[in-house]
Amino acid sequence: MKKNKFVVVGAGSSYTPAIVAVLLSRKDDLKLSEVVLYDIDAARVARTGQFCELYAREHAQDVPVSYTTDIETAFRGADFLFVQIRPGCNQQREKDEKIPLSHGILGQETCGLGGFSFALRCIPAILDIVGKAQEICPNAWILNYSNPEAMISEAIYRTYPNAKALCICDMPISQEETIADFLGIPHKDLTFKYFGLNHFGWFTNIYDKDGNDLLPALRERVLSETVSLVNAEAEEKHDNYWGEMYQHVIEGFQAYPEFLPLVYISYYYFHNEIVSHMDPNYTRANYVLDVREKVVFDDCERCIAAGTTKDSSLHTGVHGNYIVDIANAIINNTHERFIINTMNHGAIGNFNHDAVVEVPCYVSAGGIEPVSVGYIPQFHKSLMEAQKGYEKLAVEAALTGSYQKALQAVLLNRTVPSYAVGKAVLDELMEANKDYWPELK
Ligand code: G6P
Ligand code: MN
């Protein structure tokens, strides 16, 4: 029987213990032979790595788990690479968020110029990884969920059109689950239709098992009564980031009721309102560093010192499950449906065929089959075209080192009101990323 070696790339991340726990819990379905945690940061990967080794010893003794900073060792014989890198870690994310905010525009990990900054750090690193994979383990599936996925996917598919790479994001499924909970129907009994770009899309239909579209009734409710969507993962006490973001989904649906917006669309529909409520001195990166990373890393260190993971508070989230579900669909040829970033190639009939879009796809051992979305309305198409122009120029800037392309990309981003603001933010980000970005000239 063919067995599968899984490699987590960027394994020093706080998401890793949960992903490894899900992999091990599904080791039989996945025909799991081995898990290797790889990272360029020795200290970070030693921490999650030792934790996961201990965890495996206590939960799945037949699956060797190891960690390394050597890419050869990691990739040799690999069948699946889960890629989740963040060059510069959340320390650089903090700068991506704070610099634009200090100029009064959105400071966010993937949307607005924070996303541009992250893309310029991540694209060279990710292309290096995919390139090495083509040499060392050309048959491995590369499941990328490194951000900003919109631009990472453009860069990967453009540079390595034949790589077995799938670019995915957990936001659509996470929002589907939130909607399913709201409707009181199990997620597995619903089929969502969706189109867009990564962190920039809309749900068009929600079919139940009998083929009824539940979206029109949901629209009526949202337009006529007070509705609130509660995200199961909202971390109420420390901050209510996702709770507030889901409230904007309702407002966005009320404002433009044709389709139900993905949560990230709110940053564009309600840019000024959201920015005015953001704390420029304490952003999402600060929360992630102070709370999520601290909790996970403290727990890892405590368990390593105790020599056991028995009382670990580690839990599995949708993030870990989703990526493993996709690998499972490939391994077991299940033809399940997932929303994936893929070359359009006609899936959206009236949108650039040579651009990455985010659409439902059926996943099997042979790869993906995108669902045909048909023609989309003028409003959504035009929003997407500007956003895609921004994305393509940002990738172009990263690949060619052209400052002019970067400046063009910046002005196309909807969060940028003018040349002067855009240029000021770009120049400050460039300075803050001297050690990470390709040189722009
Ligand atoms: C969602 C998105 C990811 C993003 C994450 C941010 O899951 O799909 O692309 O990275 O949210 O979460 P954080 O808690 O780090 O702000
Ligand atoms: Mn995402």
From TrEMBL:
InterPro entries: Glyco_hydro_4 (IPR001088), Glyco_hydro_4_C (IPR022616), Lactate_DH/Glyco_Ohase_4_C (IPR015955), NAD(P)-bd_dom_sf (IPR036291). Mn(2+) binds at C169, H199. SUPFAM superfamilies: LDH C-terminal domain-like, NAD(P)-binding Rossmann-fold domains. The record marks E109 as: Increases basicity of active site Tyr. Signal peptide: none annotated. Pfam families: Glyco_hydro_4, Glyco_hydro_4C. Transmembrane segments: none annotated. Its cofactor is NAD(+). Residues 194-416 form the Glycosyl hydrolase family 4 C-terminal domain. Binds 1 NAD(+) per subunit. One of its GO terms (biological process) is carbohydrate metabolic process. Belongs to the glycosyl hydrolase 4 family. Homotetramer. This is Glycosyl hydrolase family 4 C-terminal domain-containing protein.
